[in-house]
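Let's study a protein:

___
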Amino acid sequence: METALVVSASQGAVRILLGKLGNILATKYALLSGVREEIQELKDELESMTGCLRDLADRDDHSQQTRIWMKQVREVAFDAEDCIDKFCRHLGQHPGDDPGLASYLGRIISLLRTMGLRAKLAAEITGLQSRAKGVSDRRVRYRLEDAAGAGPRSSSKSLHSSGYNLRRLLPSELGGGSGLVGLDGRTNEVVGLLKCGEAPRRVVSIVGFGGLGKTTLATAVYNSPELCDIQCRAFVAVSQTYDLRSLLESLLKQLVVVPAGTSDDNHPLRGIKTWGITEFPDKYTKHLTDKRYLIVLDDVWTPAAWKYLNEYFPKNEKQSRIIVTTRTHDVARNCSTHDQIYEMKHLEPEDSEKLFFRIVFESDECPDRLQEVSTAILKKCNGLPLVIVSIGRMLAQRENKIPADWQKVCRRLGPELETNPTLEAMGRILTLSYNDLPYNLKACFLYLCAFPEDYEIKRGPLIRRWAAEGFIAAMRGLSLEEIGQNYFDEFISRSLVTPGVISDTGKVKSCKIHDIMMEVITSKSVQENFMSFLGSSEDNITAGHDKIRRLSIHPGGTMENKGFTSQYLTHTRSLTIIGSTQKPAAITFSGFTLLRVLDLEGCLWLSNQDLKDICKLSLLSYLSLRSTSISEVPNAVGKLKELVTLDVRGTSVAEFPRGITKLQNLKHLMTGSYQYYTRSRSVKHLLTGVKLPRGLQNMCALQRISTIDINKSFRSMDELGDLSQLTRLYVVSHEAVEDTSRWETFVKSLNKLSSSLRYLSIQRLKLACQPTNDYISPPLFLHSLHLCGRVSLPPNWFSSLSDLASVSIRETYFGAELIEVLGKLPGLLSFKIYASGIESTETRLCFEPDRFPQLKQLVLDNPSNFSEEISFCGGATNLERLTLSIVKVPSRGISGINDLLKLREVEFFGSIVQSLVNTVMAVAREHQNHPRVTLEGQPTEDQSTIAQPMEDQLRPEAA
């Protein structure tokens, strides 16, 4: 992993610099007098280096000298980028043309003003050029290996083998007399998938994070007495690197049953070592066509590996079965019959304890003195069997089981992974998935260690930070954000991170990284100076680095008594302080002159004075002040010319100054705050908006604005329609009945955005309600629409939105025909009706056959109009989550839930009628999916039965 890290970090640094050098050569020609040739030569030298780095990315077994060389390349690139950025920052203070003079005279004056700056730049560039040549010469002088001629990933197999032996021991470690610890029920579930149906041949995939026990589960299923009628069977490990011929031989030797007493001449596999690869298909067909077989292909990494192997297994009529274990959802989807995928879950806390105690104490109990520290260790293990077994073994080997020693192990798991032989093999297994990533994704994955342990990493901010750091490689036809979305989805698919919040349309909006994987990438990041850290632990201070490039201060982190001085921080380009309650002593924002990324989410100590200092950081590209205590943004924010993202959500900021309109590179402007009613965030309500000044039309790069208060911002509403790049718009209006002119101005601008908008949220809250005439043109490519309050949109307006995936309506008083129109939309995935969102004489809400064909989420928040019945009578067949808040149960109840065959969860929130909960839970018990029932609210007063507390999450089978 070390080498892969250095390659990805080094190549990323050089790639970013090459772009800047090319840009400055093209645009600052006149100001480069005397240094243009030096910059061009430096650029050429680094281009050659990056080509070499790209070749090295295909290898994992470089010598120590080669790794040092790659780190030197990275440091040269970082220092060169710092030099160029400082030069450009000073140029911003001395523009090339003086508007009060003729252009020629203006250029002369500018050249004179920057003469000293250019002389200093020439000296620095010459020094950097000399360093770059020295690095190149060093590679030749020490005869470092020829990257282009080296074979790819020659050490992958040995790495896999050394770790795989440990994983193969898990079945015995998890054994517990009566069955596998925490896996006996899972064995029955997988056996049930294999035995279900009459398919000629069924393939079931077991997918999950490395170390979850996929191999253990597959072994248990393979040996299950429930499958004793299988005529022949085989179990083989495929792995990342495999030899097809050897694997086919191994499989065939297990599958072919040779009768006792068979002579060598008559042996069906006689001469197998001499067979050509083209002979194997016929051999497999001959031996398996008339037999019922069971094959386990363990640890399949790519769809291509499955495609090659699948050709050898005949689809006979004997109900044969194949089990595939994989870390990658993409592989699972390619393999499985009719989406027969079993997703591995982490062990439950009680099973984790049982497994840990059996390994350490050889019993099911823990001494009282070690109970607290055992709980802390198990929290880090987070239900991962491989980690529990590995750490348990290490502790079991220690003669003296002293709490203080165990606490030290818990704090120092990162270093222990590298130095303790028992944990080293586990670390190798966990890094296999990282090593398998494409080179351009490696730095993005390492970047996750910037966030605190157990932190819910939000998709959008993460991608915007990747872009600001320069980690996302541009691709023709795609924006950086779209490419970043693909990166994030790749991590989910590869089981490298655990999904968190799921959006209305099924997209993963947040994730978490396993504590032990976090330890692995944190340790490696520190080694290679990719990221530096400060936290509450006494041992996590970064040492030995002259220049800190990225710094993450975790909750409890302080710079006091750590030996830090300002010289350590002058090269910092990324600073993360999330959820800190106290300002770190040595932090002076004005000193971070090279900072590109600043994330201060949840830092309640942040003051308006701090923000004035932050506005001096002219290179900032990403600034998050989310959930801080700031109350105003200074006019000096206009100096942040490079700013792309500004996030002040959850703060007291009520308006922006005129200076913000100078931010011509700003794409994402996020304000306002939400109240969430469910932990899944399926139900939320916007609380506030902000005032925007005139001059909005100058911010031509804006792609997202959330959330504008139309009434406060009425002077700029006529400019809104000039933002042709705008794709997301969230607005709120609180106008009185007698004053609708401001609303009408907004509507005119909105009509100009009909071809660009993809996400639109309008909350129109009035002192009184009456029909209005809005004349809003339909945004033809709209993906998500939220409407609150009276907005006059005819139902046929919705029918033209073929891309619409999410609709939310609150007190809009549309007619019942809206249900009919929305039900015909081919791609609608989420539909939410809040508080009488439908005005109708109908007393029944019926989801009829062939309506809402793709709907996955439905929210019904007290739809009081439908007093007689809410029923699913053949429609919404793909519904997965049903969210309900019902004050008064319809007279004929809610029916048809048992017909929602893909239902996975029913959420109750707000007012909860216990009788309805009981009815739904009874249905859920009999449902084929056993959907989870979640209660997040309070019982209604007229119910005698007390509902479960909000914190409880009940499964119907346990109710």
Observations:
- Residues 672-788 form one domain.
- The mean pLDDT is 79.
- The chain is about 35% helix and 15% strand.
